[in-house]
Design a protein that fits this description.
The protein has 186 residues and is α/β, with parallel strands linked by helices. Helices cover 37% and strands 15% of the residues. Helix 1 links the parallel strand 1 and strand 2. Helix 1 crosses helix 5. The longest helix is centred in the last third of the chain and has 22 residues. The protein starts with a strand and ends with a helix. The relative contact order is 0.19.
Length: 186
């Protein structure tokens, strides 16, 4: 059996009880063995400022080196004001610079937006898709993953309460694994 594909997981919510992190952990548990998911933390990244590139902050270097060798990236995002949280946009900016040395290029990606609201973070999902085009990240188109009503998906111990949700999450992860294999193993 070939080595699993390494997948960076970026969670755009920093809350301790983040619904996005709960969904990401659930999807990690349901992922096929062909994916090795690695959470890459973004909360300590100083805001991107090109003036700092001469002596890039250590968290920038750590982040870039964590993402550079992976085969693909999963983005989990809440929706703030119909867009992505600043911390996630900052991580994208840090990874895309310095110009010509982006850690994102050609890495197969998927976006999972998670919200307690009814439309499942659709605005954030669409806003993040715009960045993927510029970053040259082939984005999985189907199944789309807008996870609404996320506060009701878990019991008090953080476990999924619905078999239908578990099946959907499994389908997303299986589809993403096939997407990565198609692009990386070609």
């Amino acid at each position: 059996m070939p080595a699993p594909h390494r997948i960076a997981v970026l969670v755009g919510s920093l809350r301790k009880a983040s619904l996005n992190r709960k969904v990401a952990v659930s999807m990690q548990a349901l992922a096929p063995p062909s994916l090795q998911m690695e959470f890459v933390e973004i909360g300590d990244l100083p805001n991107y400022n090109e003036d700092l590139e001469a002596e890039a902050p250590a968290p920038w270097a750590r982040f870039r080196e964590a993402v550079r060798p992976v085969d693909g990236v999963l983005f989990f995002t809440p929706e703030y004001n119909r867009s992505v949280p600043g911390v996630l946009k900052n991580a994208i900016d840090v990874g895309s610079r310095p110009y010509g040395k982006s850690v994102w290029s050609k890495k197969p990606a998927a976006i999972i937006s998670v919200s307690p609201g009814a439309i499942g973070g659709m605005g954030a999902n669409f806003a993040l898709r715009q960045s993927m085009v510029f970053l040259d990240m082939p984005l999985m188109q189907q199944p789309e993953a807008y996870i609404g009503g996320a506060g009701k998906l878990f019991d008090d111990s953080g476990q999924l309460v619905s078999d239908d949700t578990r099946k959907f999450f499994t389908n997303v992860m299986t589809s993403y694994a096939a997407w990565v294999a198609r692009l990386v193993d070609a």
